[in-house]
Amino acid sequence: MPKLAVVSGGGTGIGRAIAEELAAEHEVVLLGRRAEVLRRTAEELSGEHRLVRAVVADLCEPDEVRRAADEITAGDRTVDVLVNNAGGNFAPQPAEDLSTLREQYLRNLGGNVLPVVLLTQALLPALRRPGGRIVTVTSIAAFRGNASYGAAKAALHPWSTELAARLAGAGITVNVVAPGYVGGTEFYRDRMTPEFHRQRSAQAPVGRGGTVADVAGLVGYLAGATAGFVTGQIIQINGGALMGRG
Ligand SMILES: NC(=O)c1ccc[n+]([C@@H]2O[C@H](COP(=O)([O-])OP(=O)(O)OC[C@H]3O[C@@H](n4cnc5c(N)ncnc54)[C@H](OP(=O)(O)O)[C@@H]3O)[C@@H](O)[C@H]2O)c1
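Above: inputs. Below: predicted complex with NAP.
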């Protein structure tokens, strides 16, 4: 039986690259809301020695998370790697109006925290002990950036470190990867222009924006056999954008 990796938001962008990275050594399950997007990605990433399959679920909805977890673990299947990557900035422009501002915070908190907390809770009994890996994708915004989105991502940091402490004895590592700007995904939607890309890329002292492969490489390391002594960490990957140019 091949090892099993689950990647939420695996149909597009960073999640897709993580799925591709993990597919070399794992059977991979992609999770997302859009069936056609997932189906296409699963088909493209599958190959002679690679099995990638799609499970459709809105991970903010407990019943859908339960159904997806049951489908993934059918036949008492063990999960080796869980990558919590699904999320996004669902309110990039802060509103002046109080009701709208409230709605924006709730949307970003719900849209970023619930998929991680619910999916992890549902799959936890099936995680490999010892040797399981949980990696959660947050953002540089948890340290600096759009407040309602950053607040939501920051909420996942104490969640992850608490879980790491709880699961260390079981031999499961729990880490966070917090990327800076990464182009080539659906994240920025209609805000993405060549000028926006140039500006964001210029924020990093290394002189470029991140790529989905940069993030996937780091997640691949944390998911791998040699990372067993790394747990409870929040690892930033941003080309030095947070430290700035000095
Ligand atoms: N791009 C960046 O600059 C950047 C920087 C730092 C952190 N991040 C984080 O990296 C992660 C991946 O983002 P990305 O840039 O690759 O953008 P993306 O292409 O928009 O990927 C987000 C994925 O999450 C899925 N998703 C969102 N909500 C979901 C839900 N409720 N249930 C199931 N799936 C859901 C989406 O699929 P469906 O819409 O089909 O559900 C989509 O595949 C996100 O957590 C994002 O916050 C991105």
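Residues 112 and 133 are 20 Å apart (CA to CA).
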